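Marked as duplicate of an earlier ticket. Keeping the data here for the record.
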Amino acid sequence: MAEAEAKLSGDAAKRYRILETLGTGGMGEVFHGQHIELGRDVAIKRLKEEVALDKSVVKRFINEARAVNLIRHENIVEVTDFFTDEKGRVHMVMELLEGRSLGALIHSMAPLPYERVAHIGAQIAEAVYAAHESGVIHRDLKPENVFLIRRKSTHDYVKLLDFGIARLHPSCGGLEATESGIVMGTPIYMPPEQAKGAEVTAAADIYSLGIILYEMLSGAGPFPRTSAVEMMMAHIADEPKPLEVPGLPDEFRELVASCLAKDPGDRPATMQVVVDVLEPLAVATKESEPMGAALHSGDIAGAATWDHSEPGAISVDKPASASFSQIPVSAPKCKRTRNITILTGIVLGLAGLLFLLIRGHKTSDVENEVLVTQPVANESVRSQLDQVMASMGFSPIPLACKSSSEEVMATHLRIAKLLQAGKLGSNSPQDQLASEELDKLAEDIGPETSLWKARTRLQQGKNIDALRFAKQATQACPGMATAYVIAGTAQALSGNHTDAIIELNLAVNIDQNYLDARFNLALSQASSKRAVDAIENLSLLLEADSHYAGARYLRGRSYLQVKKYPEALVDLKMAVASKADHSEAWYLLGFAQKETGNLSEANQAFCRASELGHAKATCTGAAAGQPGAADDGEGWQTDSFDGY
């Protein structure tokens, strides 16, 4: 990085100077800085200019500073300042740490003596317990977020880092007590409830610490999986491998086992319980160990670390310095542009708001040419199939799962063309023909064929069969996001929203740009009365595509449920602006107007909903000045969310 680019400007330049760059990531940089007047070395973490307008990124950045300052514990990195420069770049100033991450220690020396593990683990538990007592849940405990420095005659003095995705209690500035539904975190250390997108409590951090303790003691994790999806499913369904450590005290072994309980209620009641078990076993190492001659990429850039052995270390001439916290890696925005149709029809009242699952490309050439028997000249069948799948909104099939022969792919291409303009449950002649084509592939049980069978059965309204084939596809290819979406949609259409949320969360975790999957997830969350979860997912979706059909309406409704009336008003106004005959949106807009004190506008909205045929909306006349509804004015709260 050029020196000029790293320099501060304006008032910030009067307080701090940049000495060197410590690391850079997809969304920010970390610098070794100095407070000019005090002469104190600091770490300065800065968001890049190009992401400074991304509200979700800035929110996490501010959330981190707020969380750390709420806790103020000696084992948590200290935040000393926070400012925005003239270019709109947000900066966080923290203490400069010299040492190495726990991940680097595990990579170089694990398994560790249990006494040393207890010493490190007890400090982590104390720091996290202080966070919990302050109303903060970390949600991303992992070795890369634990930094070890030399202090009090030990190299293993813990500094806990990265509260960027921490959940804050409402009294501390959080949205609500529960902000679940979005899979955020690191799969290898993720508790089952977080992998499912369910409510995350303090017990989630206890589970993650259990994984860390297990890894320090054994040198490996309790679940022998490699991919993110496999790991998340293992947390949900598999039992951990027995911890085989000679000489390990029974109370330590029992503690780890209880931390890894699937049910949060079966884990230790608080982190203080963990501290009470570990402290009597703890012995601080005082040996003169080398602190490491390199700074691992995970220490600075926030790269996902599965075995703590990624190549590409950054060489330094002094003990490794870290800034306190990893820079989050930005997922690219979805840049697909496509004309879309909702497979179930543009019926956006929530009782009729059906899953978008996979959108069709609305061009007459594609819709009319449903049968393709020969590849286009100079273009492979695989290339054509990938293009059609992209136009339908499918997430790309992982390269390792593209094992079908050219003959089978040609059949898949014909099926894709047949299904392209179909609707869920329609069982059209094209759907039936696609099913017949697939029957000819009876001997092919590859993941791609299973995927097409699942998709066809979904359009035929055969949800149980669709789920069965989707499961076959994901078992053969755990990274096939579209198959998880089909499975989730089939579950939702059968009324199993809890299972639907699990499947759809897996899809979103695999492909962050899979907007249809994210919308389906939010819709299933809304169906389960989980409004905050739906708001979070819809906000991420709208950041990627501000015109996504139905998203404004669904988020507006969800905002109403959590009594955020100004936010609901904005979204519902945009919903009726984009679809003027949306009676349900007009009806809810009436409530939003009423709750914000706009009685005349509320009445107009109810009148418009009534004109459009809404069964509950009534029009009292502008002179009356009172908005009307056919019940107590809150009837929309009891409307069915199950109109799938």
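See parent ticket for discussion. The first helix runs from residue 3 to 6.
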